[in-house]
Design brief:
The protein has two helices and six strands; from the N terminus they run αβββββαβ. The chain is α+β, with helices and mostly antiparallel strands. It has a single domain, classed as CD59. It comes from Xenopus laevis.
Amino acid sequence: MKLLLALLVVFMAVLLEGTKPTQGLECYDCNIRNCKKKLSAPCESAEDTCIKISRKIVDYDGSPDRENEFDPTMNVLVWERRCTTAADCKKRQSDTRLGKITSCCNKNLCNA
């Protein structure tokens, strides 16, 4: 009986060890070739921020882009969405060459 109880305790411990009480941050993840699609990825444990790098479309006429799953009338071209650290994102915000706009956030899928 004691052996059965001990095995049950070990079995429960192994089962509970595999569960995650909280999942980490999840961000949209893309590069300039596929940023019109809603693709996401879980962040690594050291990554605490979602980043989006984009650039305004010059002379945007409001024509819808039906391929854009985020917003067909989005007036920006998104270059990148991914997980990063807060420090890296802040550093990238200072780079405004070529009209780049970098936004940082720390909630799940906030870099739409």
